[in-house]
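Sample entry (101 residues):
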Amino acid sequence: MFRIHLYGTPVALSVSGLPGGVTASFSPRTATIGGRSVLTLTAAPPSAAGPFAVTVTAITLSSDPIGTSAPLSLTISTQRLFSRMILAGRPGATPTGPYAL
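Predicted structure, serialized as tokens:
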């Protein structure tokens, strides 16, 4: 079976590989193919400093799910009280980095 039209299909978004003390949220939590979602990373003061390899994943919410993932380089510096980073990309864009908190 060929996937002729997936545009507008809802996708579940997730992030893996975050260090302790770092949280991720998406807005909206569920996006659609061809749409967009904003990823916000928040690092609390006790989070570990250093470079981390993070993976962002999107999986279609359908009876025949398909997915894709993209690497994201995250660097957390030691000099911070509280940090937040918001990533917003255009549809089809691949995150580039590295990013630092």
